[in-house]
Target: Tyrosinase copper-binding domain-containing protein
Amino acid sequence: MANVINHPSRFLHLAISLIILIIFLIPLITFLNNNSLIFTIITKPYFSYYLTSFNNQSHQSHYPWRFSWRNTFINSLEFEGNVNYPSSSSSSNYSNDVSRAISPDFTKCGPVDLPPNAITSPYCCPTLATPFKFIDFKDYIINATYKYKNNSSIRVRRAAHLVDDEFIAKLEKGIAIMKSLPNDDPRNFIQQAKVHCAYCNGGYPQKHPFQDQKIDVHRSWLFFPFHRFYIYFFERILGTLIGDPSFALPYWNWDSIQGMQIPSYFTTPNSSLYHKLRHYKHMPPHLVDLNYDILSPKIRTQDQQISYNLAFMYKQMVLANTKELFMGSPYRLGDPAQPGPGSVELAPHNTIHDWLGAVDTPNHEDMGTFYTAARDPIFYAHHSNVDRLWELWTKLEGGRRDYRDDPNWLDSKFFFYDENLNLVRVKVSIIVKRPRKLRSKEEKEQEEEVLVIEVTELQSYENVKFDVHIDDDEDMLSDENHAEFVGTFVSLPHGNHGHKSNTRFMVGISKVLENLEAEEDDHIVVTLVPMIGKGDVTIGRINIQFMSK
Model:
């Protein structure tokens, strides 16, 4: 001992070693006593790495995952799964002068990626004329306008629960005619459904030199514009077949109290609008659950369900106050598919697909999986409402901005057949208007605090769902009508594109923290509750970012 005292440097080294040993022992003891893992990473605030997965949670209780940060503190409840650290990823650099707008190589359409045990194996590619030719939308719309110049009517979509018998008869007639057309007619009802299958299940490759990357319009900024064009041309075909070019699809406004059940005329067995492959327990007057959990459906009174639905819509629409939060992440030429979905795409869009899908089919066909979803006539009323929500979102708080300042979004292209069997090429810039004035300096400085959760190793042929809570009681988690519940991640089975996919969950939390009086807190606790998860799902980097509004 004297020898140690006579050598201060050795004493110092011994003391440091003891301190390090204690630092490592305390978390170990805590882990053994509390069955949880607690540790601290010394790094910048708002930035922590943590990776974990849940494997086939269908047979497990809903054990939550908890993360704390702001002061780089992470707390995770122990559960069955793997714990890893994410590897760093890099992306290629592209010149701003090179267009990276997504466009399908339409002549190279091929077999789509199907989920396991698919009940049908459709060839979703359209029949192409020889030689291959198309017309641009600007020429198409000029010709269409001239053709109907004597018709002063415009198409006005009405709420599905407010239409009259005459309208219902027209809708039934139009769908019946579409179903009766020859199988190789692009206007045939199943051919129209295959359009959705091809664009949403990897039927088209990207253009040279990225032919190895398949296009998927979901979980990205293409979700809203693609589906707007899709139902636009479906609507025109329908109107032409019944001799009424002003005919418009109804929108099933499940976001309002009066519309929270399937419109009854879609459930009449002898109607062309009826579809057999639907959830038999969800027929009227059963109310839709906008945050539906296919494995553990909630049992609620009608008043409770209405309250939860309205609160959930507020979160998905109002709290998603940046373009990336609402519309999804940018998706450019060369990018892997599904970079990150927007709030409404995740739910209620995905959850309603699940809510409608049959329970006795492997992938909840037809509405519960994308390769068959458009075979159900109610698909188009569902997406008419999704399209309506995009329009409503742009008008919130004096006007919210989408991606119209990004040329790669504006130049993204799709192909659709019109009512006259013309193949029409469209691009996103057609359906958005340029801003009338530049934003002020104050507007540019406005930012939203955003919780970003990277979802990696996602098996896209499986159902996956987890809910996200902030500063909640882990023993009594809040429902959708409480501020602590901030959102949900939902993935429907739609083919695996040959590999596991990576995507992101994003949710705005500025108003959440304000409502919870947590704006000045040094840390927040985030709870992830796996509700459905067959196969490996990995949570990668989690951080808080600031996004311009």
In short: The longest helix spans residues 8-34. The domain at 35-151+161-431+444-549 is CATH 1.10.1280.10 (di-copper center containing domain from catechol oxidase). Residues 4 and 10 are 6 Å apart (CA to CA). The chain is about 30% helix and 15% strand.
